[in-house]
Amino acid sequence: MGHLNPSPAIDLAEDKTMVLNMGPQHPSTHGVLRLLLEIDGEAVVRMMPDIGFLHTGIEKTCEAKFYQQVVPLTDRIDYLCPMVNNLCYVLAVEKLLGLEIPPRAQWMRVLLAELQRISSHLVWLGTHAMDIGAMSVFLYCFREREELLRIYEMVSGQRMMTSYFRIGGLSMEPPLGFFEAVRKFLKIFPERIDEYEDLLTGNRIFINRLKGVAQISAEDAMAIGLSGPSLRASGIDFDIRRDMPYCGYENFKFKVPTAKDGDVWARYVCRVQELRESTSIAVQALEGMPTGPIKADAPKVVLPDREKMKTQMEALIYHFKIVTEGFTVPEGEVYQAIESPRGEMGYYVVSDGTAKPMRVHMRSPSYANLQALPAMCEGKLIADVVAAIGSIDIVLGEIDR
Amino acid sequence: MPLEPAVTDLEQLKDRPAVAALLKWNTTAVQGAKWDRGELSIYVARENIRDACAHLKAQGLTDYLSDLTCADFYPREPRFEMAYHLLSISRKERVRLKVRLSGDDAVLESVTPVWPSANFFEREVFDLFGVRFLGHPYLRRIMLPEEWEGHPLRKDYPVEGYR
């Protein structure tokens, strides 16, 4: 973060260029991203992202907490899909512990992760379209997002910082009426996607602003570390959910949308298709939801049910020990990657055999995707920078951590 | 799935494609290997990390750098362990390269010529751990202000209180 230095990176190449400072308080940067742009008239000669304004040292904080206390911290990294962060962390710790998760918990996780993907893509779609100038789409997207937030509130008591997934399962059984609410939402949602597409996909102004803008080839995209829908829009057919399945995704049938052009339009098309695919996965999860326990049978790791804790001595002891001392995790290291709405999210957790993680590193997709922004924008028009930022769907919370 | 003990014997792991490729290329570069919880780690000598990455890429065994980070094992020496998480999108396989670094000489070659995506990741490790990367195009602090003193993710840096 070089915010005290007016232009840390850019020494002007020639006299005719100038440096334009964009952000960190700029509505189209989706947070506190600062871009230093060296421009020659209307063309961007060089671009330099400057980040770190939201750095809170979450990785350092994790090292001072018990394993189960880290779960709420992961919510705050990517605030558009907190449950996906929870999922990635708990999967990593479960891998370290060698825990087996009951099917009902896995299917609930898949269901909620896909709903989170939908709500995250809705925020992307609304803000991206608003950046381009299509104001009304934002209102339509947030109408559906609101319904999803109500569903998260039902299940976890919180609209955004849910912390619903716990090491070993879920925090509690979903409440009565939850599945009904999800079913109702999933029934109307395909029509709502058609509605967004009516507003945007055939819109000539929107098409002209997006087609052929901020292109990136498949080779460049791989080299620079793009992942997720942005990589698939460049023609790489790779989705961790399908190709390296986790959390029972191998039981679900879905298509992985790809596109060839690698421009902003291709990324738009891929994400809108993903909305439909996520809806289909969520429907499958809902229809096939198994019954059974929602927590693994591991009394030393998983908190006992309230009922048991009040009636059984052993459960009370375990509860007391987990809360006061945490639980120890066998020595080792794992890297668990999952497909977040933005791309490959990975947690690298190192354990030294104590109750606190020795190191938690988050490989956030936005962090790597942001590196691709200069490659997309340099040599192009400055007016297209805003479209390019929207198209890689960055969240500054997970970039700065 | 109960935990199986980790395999740390190089002899048992030499048939894994990544280990075999590195051993065939340079036996002295491979310091050890570990198969633990379904993940393969290969310890590589500090001098060879860039060439090892380039070799694995040229052999078609990896085509994507997922993640690059560091862990501090203070007060043990060598205290730093760099971890390079490489992915093969075509083979759907992951491999982790590890490099041990001592505290008073935490310098190694940058892998940015092989993986341009390492740029931000190496800057982050430089910023938060104080590990220097030779040949990095722009090695400056990325998260913290330029005038910050110390490297917060080191274990001898306090979590709270005044420095």
If you had to describe this structure to a student in words, what would you say it looks like?
- The complex is a heterodimer of chains A (401) and B (163).
- Chain A is mainly alpha-helical.
- Helix content of chain A is 48%, strand content 12%.
- Chain A contains 16 helices and 8 strands.
- In chain A, the strands form 3 sheets. A 3-stranded antiparallel beta sheet of chain A has the order 1-2-3, covered by helices on one side. Chain A has a 3-stranded antiparallel beta sheet with strand order 6-7-8.
- In chain A, a hairpin with a 2-residue loop joins strand 6 and strand 7.
- The longest helix of chain B has 12 residues.
- In chain B, 21% of the residues lie in helices and 28% in strands.
- Chain B is α/β, with parallel strands linked by helices and 163 residues long.
- Chain B has a domain of 96 residues: Beta Polymerase, domain 2 (2-Layer Sandwich), CATH 3.30.460.80.
- Chain B has 4 helices and 7 strands, in the order ααββαββββαβ.
- Chain B has a 5-stranded mixed beta sheet with strand order 1-2-5-4-3.
- The interface between A and B is large, with 50 and 46 residues.
